[in-house]
Write a structure and sequence with these properties.
The structure holds two protein chains of two kinds.
Chain A (H helix, E strand, L loop, with lengths): L1 H21 L9 H19 L3 H22 L3 H5 L8 H15 L1 H5 L2 E2 L8 E2 L7 H15 L6 H27 L2 H13 L1 H4 L9 H22 L2 H17 L3 H17 L5 H18 L8 H4 L4 H22 L3 H28 L8 H7 L3 H5 L1 H4 L9 H8 L2 H14 L3 H19 L4 H40 L5 H11 L3 H29 L8 E4 L5 E4 L1 H12 L5 E3 L5 H8 L2 E2 L8 H12 L2 H10 L4 E5 L10 H15 L22 H5 L1 H7 L15 E2 L4 E2 L10 E6 L5 E6 L7
Chain B lengths: L6 H15 L7 E11 L5 E11 L5 E9 H4 L2 E10 L6 E11 L8 E12 L4 E10 L4 E2 L3 E2 L6 E7 L8 E9 L5 E4 L5 E4 L2 E10 L6 E7 L5 E13 L3 E12 L3 E2 L5 H6 L12 E5 L4 E7 L2 E2 L3 E5 L4 E5 L10 E11 L4 E4 L2 E7 L8 E2 L2 E6 L5 E6 L7 E7 L7 H22 L9 H43 L2 H31 L7 H30 L4 H31 L1
Parallel strand pairs in B: 1-11, 9-18, 16-27, 16-28
Antiparallel strand pairs in B: 1-2, 2-7, 3-6, 4-5, 4-7, 5-6, 8-10, 10-15, 11-14, 12-15, 13-14, 16-17, 17-24, 19-23, 20-21, 20-24, 22-23, 25-26, 26-30, 29-30
Helix pairs in contact in B: 5-6, 5-7, 6-7, 7-8
The chains are: A mainly alpha, B alpha+beta.
Amino acid sequence: MPPQTMSAKTDATIGVNGTAKSTSNQAPPPMALPANLKSDLLNKLSLKSFKLKTKQQELLLRVSILFLVYVLAFITRLFSVLRYESMIHEFDPYFNYRTTLFLTEKGFYEFWNWFDYESWYPLGRIVGGTLYPGLMVTAALIYWGLRFLRFAVHIREVCVLTAPFFASNTTLVAYFFGKEIWDSSAGLVAAALIAICPGYISRSVAGSYDNEGVAIFALLLTFYLFVKAVNTGSLTWSLASAFGYFYMVSAWGGYVFIINLIPLYVLVLLITGRYSVRLYIAYNCMYVLGMLLAMQIRFVGFQHVQSGEHMAAMGVFFLMQVFYFLDWVKYLLSDKRLFETFLRITVTTTVGLAAVALGVGTASGYISPWTGRFYSLLDPTYAKDHIPIIASVSEHQPTAWSSFMFDFHILLFLFPAGLYFCFKRLTDATIFIVMYGLTSMYFAGVMVRLILVATPAVCLISAIAVSATVKNLAQLLRTKSKVTQGGSSKAASGSKASSKALLDQSQPFQRNGAIALLLGVFYLLSKYATHCTWVTSEAYSSPSIVLAARGAHGNKVIFDDYREAYFWLQQNTPTDAKVMSWWDYGYQITAMANRTVIVDNNTWNNTHIATVGRAMSSYEDEAYEIMRELDVGYVLVVFGGVTGYSSDDINKFLWMVRIGGGVFPVIKEPDYLVNGEYRVDKGAAPKMLNCLMYKLCYYRFGELMTEYGKPPGFDRARGVEIGNKDIKLEHLEEAFTTSNWIVRIYKVKPPNNRW
Amino acid sequence: MGLGLGVMRTIEFLLLIIAILSAPVLSDLILSKVERRIDLTSQIARIASTIKAENDGSSSVSEILLSIPEVQAKNLAYLTAKLVEGKGKAKTSGVALAVEPANPKGMPPALSFYTMILPKPLANGDSVTLDVLAAFTHSLRPFPEKITQADIQLVVFQDTAHYLSPYPVKVQSLTLKLPDARIESYTKLENTKGLGSEIKYGPYENLPPFSYSPVAIHFEANQAFAVARELVREIEISHWGNVQVTEHYDIVHGGAMSKGEFSRLDYQSKPQIRGASAFKHLVAKLPPRAHSIYYRDAIGNISTSHVRGDSKKTEILIEPRYPLFGGWKTAFTIGYGLPLQDFVFESEGKRFLNFSFGSPMHDLVTDSITLKVVLPEGSKYLSVSTPFVVQQEEEVYYQFNALAMLMEPFMLITGIFFLFVTCIIYVHVDLSISKSSASYLAKLQWDDVRATVQQIQNTVNQCLSTHEKLEASLRDLSRTGDVQACKAARKATDGLLKELSKELKPLISFLQSSPPAAHILPKVEELVAKERELQERLMAKHSTIVDSYEKKLGGRETENRVASVQQKIVALRQDIEDLMEYIDEI
């Protein structure tokens, strides 16, 4: 190190010069230099005796960072409680809440055997056998645990906070997962990224009491445990991953992703020649036990051995056995040619057998074919043509680029970078995360809601990118800074500038470049943090039961019409009244109004939904027949014409027509359109202007002034003056309309006397 | 039409009259003057009567009977009587009298009786004046019973124009105060006057006991007919300074049932006409300094409420989710906290809670109320006094040790303490099942290696600090010029360092013998070697400096002689530090 020596030399002379000047000849001169050095060292030593060991320091830092991330993940999801209140959000969570309530009140056996006659009237629904009980059982266990510890909490609060709690736990899993596939610093970054990633927050804010809130935790946990099992080849970890899988199966239908991704991963490992006994143990244990455990969930039942979606896992399971067997034979047979023959025969037989088994199974109906939902994942256009009920849900639409950007922000750019790092260091674990990332990214592109599944993978891979980059840069800086430190410790007075110049000469701009890059990374990360916070507070915290808008003076205006209507129904209608509405509001009506509904968000019976769609799109007297048959007492419609609320029933109406028409060909979509255009004003189709939905939404709306300077009957949601202002109802009467007209409830009159 | 409506009721009354006429006359009391004023401006009928009673008999009388027809008695909500003292303008109502239900013999069965016990018996010829206040709920009957949204609400009130009493009445009159609105019809008897919203019957003179003359008034009443079918109040005391009150209401509009459509459009455009019978808000008067007020129902918070407060009261205006028309129901919960010192007092070692019993809502009829008082854990010797009829406040007495309120925090602290203790125990206890498995042994060995490395590091650190001493002695030399002391210091350090290196030897050999240390060994050895070299260099430097000092060489010359050694020393120090850090990270 020439520069160092140089500087040391100059320093020494200067120092000696100085002392020579200040002291007379008599004084012992050489002491100036060691004294200087000495105090420096002393300082360091005394500090060191107080300092924790590097290892302990690191542990402390790691634990405190994790703890902060844990807390952060929880509190950032409380925006919804702060902005609104502690309440259950949206649609499905209301069903989950209702079932959880039932579970905590009546106990597990009652819950398991629950036949719900309050929905799908007159069919009813076997609730215990048609739901994933994981979420409810989890919440109930938390509730009972807290009760046991004498915390008198309300079950609603438990339900509201379940999702944030599990999001916090997910950060921990992400940390361990990151540690497993890369290193602990990548794990920390992954935990921090996933804690605030909007793609995940959208489904896990406080109040979003839905399966996904728990399922993402279970999904990541299963993957982590499986990767750990593959890495260690230990039975313990594979057993743990089987239990993780069981929890996932109990919580969400998305478990199909696991049971297809893991075999795919195993297959890739086999093909790339990475087969090992570790893999054999991990997969077999996980698959067999996981399958047996999953069969305990009634809703899943024997699907693992009977349905087409699960066959891949079984195929890979048998393939593993063949592999193992061949390995064994290869070990026994010394002759290479003999082995090759054997290999050919075995593989042909196996493939043949498997094909025959699959063919016979499918033909005999033992193995069910793929479901429409599964097809719609593989082929994004499938649902549009074949299953309108799936296509009608907005969260089942293909994802737009903007929502990718909205949900991932910089992770979208870090993701490919992370993939690059993963490919640079290919291990069993990185192969897994790469496959998880790529497949889930594809699914996220197919359906908006599956962004959620991709989020953990994207966070982990991006974390690898961030961590590896920062680590490289920091290493560069650290070696440099050590050198300068060594130099400056000797630099008694002031030749720093010269030594620095010498340094830069040796490695030009590298240090500055590293600093600039580091700053860039931190800038990006801070942008990410602000973006996430903004998105959480502005976009993803709305309960969508309570609508908020900005008033003319910037104040917050709250439209609480949904609850107003539901509470009115609960209090002022007979307890056995049947309410007909579009299926979106079914869960909310049963949960909040406590009334029987005809159809709800479960959408298990397409015909029943089509019947309601048909009633809504028929003329009043035809609809009356249908309603009489279904014993309907009240009809509820959602109408945004007064407030400009756009996701109302008029805008959903074409789906009712389509779904209704899909089963009842009397309903024809073109009857409601004019030149392929959907309109409600004067130019609308006559059938449109006189169908039940139109009448119920716009009844007496023609007399209302909604906006200054516009004619009465001006629909603010669609920005037109309505076409039929003189609506008379014959068989129904207005029973209740909420203060902003968002929900309108009509009572079905009893039939007239015959004479 | 006004009279035709309550045919059934009228028949009931007629039967009553027949029963009454056959009843015997009681004692010798005469009511010399009775004035009744009935206030019907709200849904509660408040009857204030001023009664002047005279003892006309020979024996003294100590109690006076009040009679109320049974049909009304079941609606009786409140009854008090007070003695009026003084005459004329200076009248003041004084002592409250005890009013008790009575069941005197030989009375007609269709009447309920209450006795007012006088503080001192009334002697012959004496008279006494009483103020009797009675309130009746549900006594305004809507007629017609079903109305549409656009209709106004009409109600009927029935009573008797003659004061129904077991005593003869000399002079009496009745005034009815109605709301400022239309009066559909009223029974016209002799001496009946209608004056705006007031109707006056009487005066009537010298009527025998149990005289009865039914009257019915049919009038418009659009005020809130809010009836709480059920009210549950919970008062929870926390000695940390808060009284938490939670009230669950189950409200119904008790007026005429609504029929037909409810049109929001009509209600919005003309709420006074097309929703006259509905009410949209209730007002509750809470005690002052009420805080943390909330208003919600089973499905969440209700955002339509306003709180106004001053030093005397806190007024909260709550709007149910929807306006209530006749027969419509709603349910909600309000809750608020109150400062403890305003309601809980201490006397003679006992604490007592003094709290109003009823609902704080204005003009609300409560059909059934349940009051729960939750005392803190550890309260003893409870007793309750609820003298309602006299005062609308109840008192709960109990004993409570202030230390008991530390119980919960203490439990929490203990819980967390035990959590940490468990963690500590878990970390320190060896939980492995098989003590002979390979991995377990390897772990043990590795622990040993780590401990040894730790020791080596400690020793090296000691060496380094010994080096410091050497340097310090050089500094002393430059200050004092004591060469001998400096030499002695060198000797001492030398001895010390030798001892330390002796200590190092077995440690190193242990590391060399244990296989798991293989990857760490070269670094450790390098560390020790470097340290030894550093020692030597330092010694050399020390001796050089001392030597040149003895030879009285100049500063620059000494510097030149030491310079190369000094460089090495600095480099070595840096290396050692790096190595230590590296080993730490393993």
